[in-house]
TrEMBL record:
Part of the full-length chain shown: 244 to 600 of 600
Enzyme kind, highest EC tier: transferase
UniProt KW keywords: Aminotransferase, Cytoplasm, Glutamine amidotransferase, Repeat, Transferase
Active site: K352
UniProt EC number: 2.6.1.16
Native species: Paenibacillus alba
Protein name: Glutamine--fructose-6-phosphate aminotransferase [isomerizing]
Length: 357
């Protein structure tokens, strides 16, 4: 039920801090440690390479998952779009482990890959929001995202719950491999949940950004580097699918290789900066587009923010920024769609669960 909310999407955006706290509690053992089923842990430990397969928003969570697993657990990861995997299949490593990410657990493109790798004798894990779904039944193992039913076609809380589960999986795998982690994972995830809540409680900032930057624009660029680039892909997808504004998520460094030709007076550019190591580069990309007339909205994070930035995310561990940076993107998409009178929960041409290839 929507309760007092005008749209399921807004309700589901608001639920995210509670969902992350629920994910933490679901994966905590009696001692408060975040743990994963021991058979899944053994597969992660044995794997020489992990293949994450997903579509749409779940694919973007998979890109964040690649960063998490590689940075925290030191296991190589490739993230693939399910529909491409069958034709552009990489040469598999000797001991692969497959992770399928799907909110619905019913996506046909993913099932195609699952059937294929099962025939090859590989074991797999489905990360899904729906217990008993097809992908959950057919994979060897399942981890649930515990986000509760997601009704709006635009995925929000499922995405952040998927990232939280992937982070827990990464921390658990690191421990299994004897890698020393000098943070308390449950504590860091709780800090991220609180930061998400702070952003959610400042919706008026994102509403104002939409008025200022997207009021009568037909296109919008999202730029970032590293993990921020992955978040930008999700920001662009959200904006496209519900407001129908042509949007593109772009690596800051690639702009000068072509796309900067599209920047003209008043083109909206939303820049994201959460990683200290790319600070100078992204700020110089912002100068480059500004010099060509772009109307830049800068989203940064406490610690590396400058006071003229438009949105400043509360500080969280650098591994967990994707949980927080997506909140302004979701809200910007929501308000842009609202002001355009779009059907927010049921955008045109889209279905919640895509069961055809
Ligand atoms: O149920 P799934 O996570 O497998 O769905 C994958 C995509 O169809 C889905 O994430 C889609 O991109 C969303 N509408 C995005 O908001």
């Amino acid at each position: 039920e929507k309760g007092p909310y005008p749209h399921y999407m807004l309700k589901e955006i608001d639920e995210q801090p509670v969902v992350i706290r629920k994910v933490i509690s679901k994966y905590q053992d009696a001692a408060g440690e975040l743990v994963i089923d021991s058979e899944i842990r053994a597969c992660m430990k044995k794997a020489d390479r992990i293949y994450i397969i997903a579509c749409g928003t779940s694919y973007h969570a998979g890109l964040a998952g690649k960063q998490l697993i590689e940075r925290i657990a030191d296991i190589p990861v490739e993230t693939h779009i399910a529909s491409e995997f069958l034709y552009n299949r990489p040469i598999l490593s000797p001991n692969p482990f497959f992770i399928f990410i799907s909110q619905s657990g019913e996506t046909a493109d993913i099932r195609g890959v699952l059937v294929d790798i099962k025939q090859m004798g590989h074991s797999s894990l489905t990360i899904t929001n729906v217990p008993g779904s097809t992908l959950s039944r057919e994979a060897t193992y399942t981890l649930l995202t515990h986000a509760g039913p997601e009704i709006a076609v635009a995925s929000t809380k499922a995405y952040t719950a998927q990232i939280a589960v992937l982070a827990i999986l990464a921390f658990d795998s690191a421990r299994a491999k004897g890698i020393q982690i000098d943070v308390n994972p449950a504590h860091e995830l709780s800090i991220a949940a609180n930061a998400m809540e702070i952003m959610i409680n400042h919706k008026e900032v994102m509403e104002e950004i939409v008025w200022q930057y997207l009021n009568d624009s037909h296109n919008c660029f999202f730029i970032g580097r590293g993990v921020d680039y992955y978040a930008c892909l999700e920001g662009a997808l959200k904006l496209k699918e519900i407001s129908y504004i042509q949007a593109e998520g772009f690596p800051g460094g690639e702009l000068k290789h072509g796309t900067i030709a599209l920047i003209e007076e008043g083109t909206p550019v939303i820049a994201l900066l959460t990683q200290a190591q790319v600070r100078a580069n992204i700020r110089s990309n912002v100068q480059e587009v500004k010099a060509r007339g772009a109307h830049v909205c800068m989203i940064s994070i406490e610690g590396i923010a400058e006071k003229e930035d438009h949105v400043i995310l509360p500080a969280v561990h650098e591994w967990l920024t994707p949980l927080v940076s997506v909140i302004p993107f979701q809200l910007i998409a929501y308000y842009a769609a609202l002001y355009r009178g779009c059907d927010i929960d049921k955008p045109r041409n889209l279905a919640k669960s895509v069961t055809v290839e």
